[in-house]
Design brief:
Helix content is 35%, strand content 14%. By secondary structure, the chain is of the alpha+beta class. The chain folds into 3 domains: 9-114, Endonuclease III, domain 1 (Orthogonal Bundle), CATH 1.10.340.30; 123-200, Endonuclease Iii, domain 2 (Orthogonal Bundle), CATH 1.10.1670.10; 212-319, Alpha-Beta Complex (Nucleoside Triphosphate Pyrophosphohydrolase), CATH 3.90.79.10. The strands form 2 sheets. Strands 3, 4, 5, 6, 7 and 8 form a 6-stranded mixed sheet that branches.
């Protein structure tokens, strides 16, 4: 992984934010492109938010990108009032005072960048500790106990080495399924090493099925251009562009339901808490005012603004089939 082994707080921070709710395999190419464009906190702070969102396009959970940008600005410009290195606070509390940095990310930066003792508990470490101590309380109720147990193991003499080793142990040896107990360096101390029930830890309660919501999305065309509107900065997909639709909170279809259209199909997209199905309708020659649809504009296929994955799916179905692989 390209972020392993670095002591640069900026690189560690960006990696940890990208890894929230996203797999390592998905993150790696995004991380590499992001670093090629914004190689340090100063370049990120100086960037336009639209450029940051464009580079984030397809990674999802776009609020992360906005918080990265806001945090970079604060690191570069604010007088933090604490001992810092390159604008970064050197303690967990100071790091948590920055926009978008929570307890885990703060601990990861403190330990891995500054070699300060900190209780770094990501999903991998959580799994290792739950098995070491055979913690049978189901998640998420077990999180507090797992965190406390992990805190008893922190190596204060070598916090950076220890934090990286624990995360690597969970990622490569103590895997969710079929852990390699026979080569695990801490097997002698593990309550579940070689146990046939080890795969069941940490214990999880079966999640309820996501509810399915439905709606309609309109692809409005005029002389080859596509009408897109910008969502408000807050809430789901905040600040991103979309085709007019009624499937997302805050969206609406003022004046569109009576227009002639061609049915293009249905797209399905899974969000964290629900699944959305949108019927895609295409209006080929739209000559009505878009004033009632919110802030928006007309864009050529080559000049599209940052689009969330859902809207790229909509356009693939309805208009840009020959360029679908590029969306």
């Amino acid at each position: 992984m390209p972020w392993r082994g670095t002591a640069d707080p900026y690189r560690i921070w960006v990696a940890e934010v990208m890894l929230q709710q996203t797999t390592v395999v998905t993150v790696i190419p995004y991380y590499e492109r992001f670093m090629a464009r914004f190689g340090d906190v100063q370049s990120l702070a100086a960037a336009d938010i639209e450029d940051v969102l464009a580079l984030w396009q397809g990674l999802g959970y776009y609020r992360r990108a906005r918080m990265l940008h806001a945090c970079a600005k604060e690191v570069v410009s604010c007088e933090l009032g604490v001992e810092s290195e390159g604008g970064w606070p050197r303690d967990v509390g100071g790091l948590m005072a920055l926009p978008g940095i929570g307890p885990y990310t703060a601990a990861a930066i403190a330990a891995c960048a500054f070699d300060i003792p900190a209780n770094v508990v990501d999903g991998n470490v959580e799994r290792v500790v739950a098995r070491l101590f055979k913690i049978s309380t189901p998640l998420p109720a077990a999180k507090k106990g797992i965190f406390a147990a992990a805190g008893t193991l922190v190596n204060e003499a070598h916090p950076r080495i220890y934090a990286n080793a624990m995360m690597e142990l969970g990622a490569t040896v103590c895997k969710p399924r079929n852990p390699k107990c026979e080569v695990c360096p801490v097997a002698a101390f593990c309550a579940l090493a070689g146990d046939e029930t080890v795969d069941n830890y940490p214990v999880k309660v079966k999640k309820a099925a996501r509810p399915v919501r439905s709606g309609v999305a309109y692809i409005l065309m005029r002389e080859g251009d596509i009408f897109l509107r910008k969502r408000g900065d807050d809430g789901l997909l905040g600040g991103l562009w979309e085709c007019p639709n009624d499937g997302l909170p805050g969206a609406g279809l003022d004046g569109l339901t009576t227009m002639e259209y061609e049915e293009m199909g249905v797209v399905r997209h899974v969000f964290t808490h629900f699944t959305l199905e949108l019927e895609v309708r295409k209006v080929e020659r739209c000559d009505v005012s878009m004033g009632g649809l919110g802030e928006g504009g007309w864009f050529g296929e080559e000049d599209l603004p940052p689009l969330p994955t859902l809207m790229r799916k909509v356009l693939k179905v309805g208009v840009i089939r020959e360029h679908a692989a590029d969306l």
